[in-house]
Amino acid sequence: MNALRVYVEGIGLWSAQLASFADLQALLAGATPPAPTPRPAAATLPPNERRRAPASVLLAVEVAGQAVAMSGRAASELACVFASSHGDQAITDYMCATLAQTPAELSPIRFHNSVHNAAVGYWTIATGCHEPSTAVAAQRASFGAGLLEAVTQVLTEQRAVLLVCSDTDGTPPLLEVTGCTIDFGCALVLAAHASATSLARIDLTITGAGAVTALPEPLAGWRDASASACALPVLAALASGHGTCELDAASGIGLRIDMEKIV
User: Fold this and answer.
1) All domains of the chain in start order, with CATH
2) Can you tell me whether residue 84 is helix, strand or coil?
3) Which of 74, 97, 99, 189 is 20 to 30 A away from residue 211, measured at CA?
4) pLDDT in tens, 111-148
């Protein structure tokens, strides 16, 4: 099939090791970026919401805010796709334990934050966005599934779309299932046409099950530590300005991504 072509206008990144896409570029260039703050700033949220929001929401909102700011677009005008393999693992663990032991003590607020689209709800309310929003989950293929969904919307609707993919670290016993030991989130603003703000061109081709693309040495092990870090081959190619990588979008469905920097 013909490649699906879109353009990247903004990039967001936050993890326990890196606070921005610029930090990833510095790391891959051989520098040592400063350590991030313990919690993402998530400055897009009003102060009261920031205090109440769980870690999973802060992470997603932080990377979304970075990508939108870089793009120069208005967050309120962007359709968005939020992907996460596991949602908020800490709240899921809490709810399972509470329901098993003392169900009458279940917190309504924590239950409210347990739904898979909690992060996109916080984002759209904070930014006044009334455009379409989508929440996606596909286990370790969540970034690929989210990317395919976002690119499909970009090309069919001929509009810019914000893609966010994030997962926080897990706690026992759920950690034994998810294996997610680090916080990692990333975001891309994708558009149908090149513009003055375009950073790179992406050609996406649907293939069979994706091959595992090797990561640069500084990123070794990160993909195993977080399902959302499966986005790293794409982010590393963006950091270098060019490259080809493959990743899964679902069981038996892979994506080949050819990328070129726009000068």
Assistant:
1) 9-197 (3.40.47.10)
2) coil
3) 189
4) 777 888 899 999 999 999 999 999 999 999 999 999 99
